[in-house]
Amino acid sequence: MYHMLVTDIDGTLLDSEGKVPEETKKILAVLREKRGFIITIATGRMLARAESIAREIMINAPLICYNGALIIDIYTRHRILERPIPPGKLIELIELLKEWGYEVIVYENETIKVERFNERTRWYINQCEGIECNVVHDMIDYVKQKNLSSYKVFAVGDVSKVVKVPAELLFKLEQNFEVSLAEESHMEINLKGVSKGSAVKFLADAFRIDSTEVITIGDGYNDVSMLKYAGLGIAMGNATEHIKGHAKYITLTNCENGLLDIVNKFIVPQEKISLEDL
After folding, report:
1. Over the Cα atoms of the chain, what is R_g?
2. Which contiguous run of DSSP H or E holds residue 207?
3. What band does 257 get if pLDDT is binned at 50, 70 and 90?
4. Backbone angles phi, psi at 94, to 5 degrees
5. What is the pTM (predicted TM-score) of this model?
6. CATH code for the domain defined by 87-191
7. pLDDT category, 278, cuts 50, 70, 90?
């Protein structure tokens, strides 16, 4: 029997218009209120871009942000777990990424820092609507001066066409960091050992829930670790074949009520909820 459900946001919880469908909110309410489910979100987003969605679906467990680098109770503001990239490692990471020609996005106190405004950094900034962005002309010097640590770094590659991240660079990065590809050309980078999977395990252990009782749902590279951890790791129909290969079940797309499909197949198979019932 399942007792905990953890969902990604982009491409999973949100539809093609970037909204949480009303049906999805109603289904989650049924699970939470009538089935006693623990429900939360695991996202690569920063807190400032995830909290409103978490409140909208009324999560009843701490929120996982920055791919697991921050676990926070959004109702009490208590930061339960923080695992940022420390200053020394952050400098090493920035140096390596710049050496390979990537634009580096660093997170600081729910703002983002870039070294310049250009096509690549603007591409990323445009996805972070409403988030403060500051230019620091020398990122390494900035990190040194502020002794800055960062929950996550985003490395922006070519935005005009798909250029896969070189295998040699991935190998070097993975010695000290967790790396999730983003649209093949870009990378989300966290401290080694930090992932959605490790964060979901942390919460499940805190609630004394076994991994076999956990359902996780996602569509991206940064979801793979939690799909592999959960007793039931589910990939969205809009996920790539690589992501689907790590899932135990593939549901419908984020525009086809994939959550309802999951509930009917694995949670209430004898009852079969329909959209008309919600």
Report:
1. 19
2. none
3. confident
4. -60, -45
5. 0.95
6. 3.30.1240.10
7. low
